[in-house]
Write a structure and sequence with these properties.
Blueprint (H helix, E strand, L loop, with lengths): L1 H12 L1 H5 L10 H4 L1 E2 L7 E2 L7 E5 H6 L6 H7 L3 E3 L17 E3 L2 E2 L6 E4 L2 E2 L18 E8 L3 H4 L6 E7 L6 E11 L3 E11 L3 E12 L8 E13 L4 E15 L8 E20 L3 E21 L9 E16 L5 E17 L6 E21 L2 E12 L3 E12 L5 E12 L3 H5 L11 E14 L4 E21 L2 E24 L2 E12 L9 E9 L4 E14 L8 E16 L2 E8 L7 E3 L2 E2 L4 E9 L1
Parallel strand pairs: 7-10
Antiparallel strand pairs: 1-2, 3-9, 4-5, 5-6, 7-8, 9-10, 11-12, 11-34, 12-13, 13-14, 14-15, 15-16, 16-17, 17-18, 18-19, 19-20, 20-21, 21-22, 22-23, 23-24, 24-25, 25-26, 26-27, 27-28, 28-29, 29-30, 30-31, 31-34, 32-33
Length: 620
């Protein structure tokens, strides 16, 4: 490990001397000038932002051929890992995969926030992300803030924020795209997307279906989804837009190899909707957004051999809705002041036996917040400071500060330093459900510190970024035994630190390489977060033919903790070949786990062996 860090450090230190080659500033790659909105709510150059943000674009998402979005993010974003247990689909409840971890912060525990178009998206009773809801067909791009993002997004963003920005046509006219593929284990994926724009009105509509028999007995999955998004420019300065998408998914839990399960099923329906009125005046930009999410889960926990079928199914419904209003002003040259107000209401109910087993009886909570975020550009220097005042119906007021600085010391380089506080309020499960419930819980807190160095070389053909981070958390909720009673309590603490590195190199017009690496040191060990994660890929596109090969390497992924902790290490080789037969027709084939490695990301749930899928893409 020390050798790897020394190599990365030496590589980074040499960049300043390499950069002083007379490279003209206007020849720097688009990545230097690219704007992101997740760190500020208004567009700002990524290299100017003090916080490290990864961006995954539509081209990379489309090339994955996945119905789920998370596999692409895991490959492209250092420090992000997602557990899996089969060919496609993640499931929910016992034995579910789709555990999203960012720098050791789990979205399953609500410590990493997933958003769609800036609106929080998670199961509000349990506080966890639902990976089957985040579909590749939805996303135009994804912006991942690595580090606390609670000033802008409040609770659950103490480890970072994954903002899925939905698709919108960037052309005039009409396009239809149909994609279908199938192969190993009875797997089929299909989708159809219609996009239209006349310059003032735009529309995106999508339907998709995903299914597999699974590589194990009782491991089938199927999902059907639909999305409709429209926008209308009322004037040159005002835009009205709205979106609705629905996902219905059915998954089976086969249990572990040592303890197979029967009749373990999850049938869920998730819905997300929002409407937004935006204004763009140049000297000021902002908007008002209304959103509403809901879900229905019907769970059969199943039984092991020798057991008996469940007499009752688990039912839950949840909702989350709110409004966020923000306005950004530019009072002085190079300055931006963003002010915002957030209001969120959430709750739900959960029961098994409707007569006797109510776990959360229509619980309702609410939060209100106001925040200010200020940025000042002084030549190559950017100064940033922010503060959020969060008021919760149970916990009163919480203050969340943030500060950072970035500088462009020479052409193509960026140095960043940031410090930010994150927090998480206890979810309904921790407060009210099951024997370990505790209504006296307090919010969790953490501080994140980041140092980032980015360098763009060779007229922007080589782009690199190196980040060092340190996070310390307190008041962490854990199950603890006091006087013989097990209960959720604020007794935990942790320190996570590590290194993240990413690079992309355009070796020629039709040849490109990407790579990233992350090292995570956890003071308190958690499952689903590897110590070492590396990914490298190459894409070659000579004419109508294209080829992509990618290799994922994982070392010391904890599958269990404690004295007898179990760890997993593996490599996963993927390959995709495609040929554009006609201007509107492309055929392709892809293979996964081509080395046929036997590995697990969840204890007792082996991954499938060699998997081959082939299909067609039609665009008219």
């Amino acid at each position: 490990m020390k050798r790897i860090l020394l190599i990365i450090s030496a590589f980074a230190i040499t960049f300043p001397s390499m950069a002083n080659t007379g490279q003209p500033e206007n020849d720097i790659a688009d990545t230097l000038r690219s704007a992101v909105i997740t760190g500020t709510r208004v567009a700002m150059e990524r290299d100017r932002l003090p916080s490290p943000i990864s961006v995954v674009g539509r081209e990379r998402i489309e090339a994955s051929d996945e119905s789920a979005l998370m596999p692409s993010l895991m490959e492209e974003v250092p420090g992000l890992f997602v557990t899996s247990r089969g060919v496609t689909g993640y499931g929910v409840s016992a034995g579910a995969a789709g555990g999203i971890s960012l720098r050791g912060f789990s979205a399953a525990s609500g410590r990493t926030l997933v958003l769609i178009d800036g609106h929080p998206q998670y199961m509000s009773i349990y506080g966890h992300a639902v990976a089957d809801e985040y579909l590749a067909d939805l996303a135009e791009r994804v912006e991942v803030t690595r580090g606390a993002a609670s000033v802008l997004y409040g609770s659950n963003a103490m480890g970072g924020a994954i903002n899925i920005i939905t698709r919108q046509p960037n052309f005039l006219g009409n396009r239809v795209r149909i994609k279908m593929l199938g192969g190993s284990y009875g797997t089929f994926r299909g989708s159809a997307t219609e996009q239209y724009s006349d310059g003032r009105f735009s529309l995106t509509a999508n339907v998709g279906h995903d299914r597999t028999d699974g590589h194990r007995v009782n491991s089938a999955f199927r999902s059907t989804s639909g999305m409709l998004k429209a926008s209308y420019d009322i004037s040159a300065s005002w835009r009205l837009s709205g979106d609705i998408n629905v996902v219905k998914a059915y998954s089976e839990n086969p249990g572990t190899v040592e303890r197979p399960m029967f009749e373990g099923t999850a049938d869920i329906t998730r819905m997300m909707s929002w409407i937004s009125l935006e204004n763009h005046y140049g000297v000021t930009d902002g908007g008002i957004n209304l959103y509403y999410n809901s879900g229905r889960h019907l769970i059969n926990d199943g039984y092991a051999q020798g057991g008996t079928p469940q007499p009752f199914l688990f039912h839950s419904t949840d909702y989350q809705g709110g409004v966020n209003v923000f306005q950004a002003f530019h009072p002085f040259e190079g300055s931006t002041l963003t002010a915002g107000i957030d209001v969120k209401l959430y709750g739900g109910n959960a029961y098994r036996n409707p007569e006797t087993e109510y776990y959360a009886d229509h619980k309702k909570l609410h939060e209100e917040a106001g925040y200010l975020l200020a940025q000042q550009l002084i030549g190559p220097l950017t100064l940033e400071g922010g503060i959020r005042m969060e008021h919760h119906s149970l916990y009163g007021t919480e203050w969340i500060p943030q500060a950072g600085v970035s500088v462009l010391p020479w052409t193509g380089a960026s140095l960043k330093l940031s410090a930010s506080k994150g927090f998480r309020t206890p979810n309904l499960r921790e407060l009210y459900m099951y024997a370990v419930a505790n209504e006296d819980l307090k919010p969790e807190r953490a501080w994140s510190y980041d140092f980032t160095y980015a360098q763009h070389l060779m007229d922007g053909r080589l782009n690199t970024e190196l980040s060092l981070f340190y996070t310390k958390g307190s008041n962490i909720i854990e199950v603890n035994v006091v006087d013989g009673k097990r209960a959720n309590r604020n007794v935990g603490a942790f320190e996570n630190k590590g290194v993240e590195f990413s690079a992309d190199f355009r070796a020629a017009d039709r040849l490109r390489f990407n790579a990233n690496y992350s090292y995570l040191h956890m003071g308190t060990i958690y499952t689903g977060a590897p110590v070492h994660k590396a990914y490298v890929s190459g894409t070659w596109t000579p004419g109508r033919f294209s080829a992509n090969i990618g290799l994922m390497g994982i070392k010391d992924l904890y599958l269990s903790t404690g004295e007898d902790a179990v760890k997993s290490s593996y490599v996963d080789l993927k390959c995709r070949l495609a040929y554009r037969v006609l201007d509107w027709l492309t055929v392709f084939v892809r293979g996964e786990n081509l080395l046929d490695r036997d590995y697990q990301t969840m204890l007792g749930f082996p991954e499938p062996g060699i998997t081959v899928l082939g299909g067609i893409s039609v665009e008219i």
